[in-house]
Amino acid sequence: xxxxxxxxxxxxxxxxxxxxxxxxxxxxxxxxxxxxxxxxxxxxxxxxxxxxxxxxxxxxxxxxxxxxxxxxxxxxxxxxxxxxxxxxxxxxxxxxxxxxxxxxxxxxxxxxxxxxxxxxxxxxxxxxxxxxxxx
Length: 135
Description:
The chain is α+β, with helices and mostly antiparallel strands. The protein has a single domain, classed as Thiol Ester Dehydrase, Chain A. The protein has helices at residues 35-51, 118-133, and strands at residues 10-16, 58-69, 78-89, 92-100, 105-117.
């Protein structure tokens, strides 16, 4: 269905952990990369891989995240998120995910995304918003 998407296609992105991507509840000297920030960076990396390979007017949305965040990454360290397409089933794309900082593998898991038609998705959202406003 998507000739530019193939099992084994890989993308890696490197991010520097910023203050707003860290936890703050253990104090200033214990700021580490927050799991929600890691998930966001995984989603962006996977989305960008798909987006660059599907026709204009299509995009993808995340549907499943299943990761283990295994090691802390300090504020200011770099993290490389490496994603590889493991499965393609119609519009569903499943990624194997590994994230590493310079010292540790910090994450392993899977992420699933679903390819959508942007115009149709906007219409569905508009219809849902109309239902909500009528409640």
